[in-house]
Amino acid sequence: MLFGRLTAALNRLRLAMTVAVHPASPITEPAAKRMRLSPEMEGPQPAAIGTTVFPKPPNDSTASLATASTDSSPQPKKKKSRRSPKAGDWSIVPTSEQEVASAAACEETMSLPFELERSYAHELVYSNKLVLAPMVRSGVLPARLLSLYYGAGLVWTPEIVDKAIIGAQRSVDPETGIVTYHKGQGAIWTTHPIEKPFVIFQIGSSDPKLAAEAAKVVEQDVSGIDLNCGCPKPFSTHSGMGAALLSTPDLLLDILRSVLRAVDVPVSCKIRLLAGQQDTRHLASRILRTGVRNLTVHCRTRDMRPRERAIWDRLRDIVELGERRGVNVICNGDGEGAVNWEKIKEETGASSAMLARSAENNPSVFRPEGPVDNLTQVVPRLLNIAEYTKCSWGSIKFLLMQYRPSPPPLSTISRARRKELNEVLSRAKSVEELAENLKIELGQGKTLFDELDAKLRARPEWAVWEASRAGSEVVDPKPAEVQEAQAEEGNVLLAAAA
Ligand SMILES: Cc1cc2nc3c(=O)[nH]c(=O)nc-3n(C[C@H](O)[C@H](O)[C@H](O)COP(=O)(O)O)c2cc1C
Predict the structure, then answer these.
(1) Mean pLDDT for the chain?
(2) Pseudo-torsion of CA 419, 425, 426, 432, nearest 10°?
(3) How remote is the CA of residue 225 from the centroid of ligand 1, in Å?
(4) Which of 69, 139, 472, 486 has the most CB atoms in a 10 Å sphere around its CB?
(5) Sign of the CA dihedral 188, 191, 196, 200?
(6) What is the pLDDT of residue 469?
(7) Distance 45 CA to ligand 1 centre (A)
(8) Per DSSP, what are the bridge partners of residue 155?
(9) Ligand 1 — pocket residues by CB below 6 A?
């Protein structure tokens, strides 16, 4: 009895001590949050196309159509660590001398005229759209086409570094019309004329001259050029590209000016929030003045992790600057399609939202009616487009690994069946093998292309684009030495492209 009481008292004491030192207690929580704010790479490992650093190949043993929730074995419960922004996380009102100076400089910039006033034969409409974000590895041609099929208004290509695309040769597949930029065997970027009115090519650069040269290489196949100023990954920032440009705004602006002067398609820019709100406004005002047609803001700072909630309410200020200039501003961060588009509009004032991970998990999030089931509807389309576009199995497998199971009532398959499907995916060595094992009929690629073609032609943008190119001269912007090399090779595909 006495022993029982003693044990109970000891247990109470132990419990009290645990509460006092537990990380969730009020004393230690801020410290824990500070630790979470350390820099982290954005999204999965980089980065196949056109970058010099390559990603880890997908690990077969972890391949999954629906990683997390498909495994029926008990999983350790993950701590939910998305935190809401709180007052004090940033300063809305200028508090420091620096912020006061930035606020004044912003107003001064806003009072100045545009640096470069350009008009384009084909003006891109960036407003009132759900658009596909640039995503290294996940933004390959079949993924962009599927996004367009499901209703994406515009699609960004994954970042390609300037030097990677400069000097690339352009070839056209006479059967499918697919355009490939390549150096020797390695394809650097692949596109199809069907996506041209909607596709924006994103460049990674820290050099105005190289950025302009890179933009010229692909100009004939795209409707816009975008400069990546938001990627926080070391492979981008170590050479002064991506988010590093946020710390060198003069260089950032010089790159934009150089690209703006070089190409005859609209130019845009994608940034992240800076730590200070007034500094962000000032940077935005300078970018908006250059003559860019759109500014996309990823509503996270460079140091924020992808799982931390995007700070939408910081965007309203920037959207207002855009409105004063007549330049569109797109909201990026935590967009989920029709489900929260209205909320984004309400909270930010931005009419367009750019989707990255939600579209990576299920490209049909662009549907106004909401997504369809990944497994039964999206996967068969993806495999058929992959077969038709001759996309590599590695890329397709990577895409499939990002797909998440559609919740009921979209999907009603059992956990056991999901597990089985994951195994089928991890064992498969080709699109054909996977299609056979999933009992998906291939050979529908052309039909899907025709369906997509009809859908896209029905959009108002198509008519604008057709009108703008009517009578326009076809120019070949390839550098002279590339043209010579092509002539020497006598490449049939290249000849077909000419
Ligand atoms: C796999 C992956 C690759 C990415 N690659 C790029 C890129 O090439 N260029 C870029 O500007 N942002 C890139 N991002 C960032 C996204 O475009 C987007 O800004 C970010 O994921 C936030 O949007 P979300 O909350 O909708 O995911 C990438 C993100 C992911 C997940």
Answers:
(1) 80
(2) 160
(3) 17
(4) 139
(5) negative
(6) 60
(7) 11
(8) 132, 199
(9) 42-44, 133-138, 158-159, 202, 228, 230-231, 270, 298, 306, 310, 332-335, 355-358
Nearest CA to ligand 1 atom 22: 333
Tens-digit pLDDT profile for residues 283-306? 999 999 999 999 999 999 999 999
Task: Name the CATH code of domain 111-371 (choices 1.10.1380.10, 3.40.640.10, 3.20.20.70, 3.20.20.480).
Answer: 3.20.20.70
Which protein residue has the closest C-alpha to ligand 1 atom 26?
Answer: 356
**CA 497 from centroid of its chain's CA atoms:** 29
Look-up: residue for tokens 């820290």? 206
Tell me whether strands 267-273 and 169-172 are parallel, antiparallel or unpaired: unpaired
Ligand 1 centre distance from Cα of residue 431 (Å): 26
pLDDT in tens, 412-470: 778 788 888 888 889 999 999 999 999 999 999 999 999 999 999 999 878 777 776 65
What digits encode the pLDDT tens for the residues 202-258?
A: 999 999 999 999 999 999 999 999 999 999 988 888 899 999 999 999 999 999 999
